[in-house]
Design brief:
The protein starts with a helix and ends with a strand. A hairpin with an 8-residue loop joins strand 1 and strand 2. The protein has 2 domains: about 50 residues, no CATH class; about 90 residues, Beta-lactamase Inhibitory Protein, Chain:B, domain 1 (2-Layer Sandwich). With about 140 residues, the chain is of the alpha+beta class.
Length: about 140
């Protein structure tokens, strides 16, 4: 994960240098244009994900069980938000690491996710007991 923060800028600089050596300033213009286009594509994707998430309640997911099945260690918070199409309910103090988010579905099943520096480290699925009295509120059991 950390190496992407070094590899991407290094590859960008190497691309510009190679373009200059092969084609001169015209090559630099094309290489910089490609890098700007790549950044704009990522920015556009991020904005689309956040616009979709803004239209749904915070912390809601269609199916917590399906979300639990799709989660993988190392996923980014943006990827999880894109899957749920909703922002997670923040459960930890703001700007504190690790960040804890929770998504709940209509059956009151919950997925709690822990993100360290924007990457998913652990998650838990909590499902209400089947025989619980609905008037007494949800009773959660641990399930994974």
């Amino acid at each position: 994960m950390q190496f992407q923060r070094v590899i991407v800028p290094l590859a960008s600089v190497l691309l510009v240098i190679a373009a200059y050596r092969a084609y001169g300033w015209a090559g630099v213009a094309v290489a910089v244009g490609l890098l700007v286009m790549w950044l704009l594509l990522h920015f556009t994707r991020m904005m689309q994900v956040l616009q979709r998430a803004a239209k749904r309640p915070v912390g809601y997911v269609d199916s917590a069980v399906m979300l639990n099945a799709k989660l993988r260690t190392g996923m980014t918070l943006l990827h999880v938000v894109a899957m749920t199409r909703a922002l997670g309910e923040l459960r930890s103090p703001k700007d504190d690491q690790p960040e804890l988010y929770r998504w709940t579905d209509g059956a009151q099943s919950q997925v709690s996710c822990e993100f360290l520096r924007g990457r998913l480290t652990t998650w838990d699925l909590l499902r209400p007991l089947q025989g619980a009295d609905p008037a007494s509120g949800p009773d959660f059991s641990q399930a994974s």
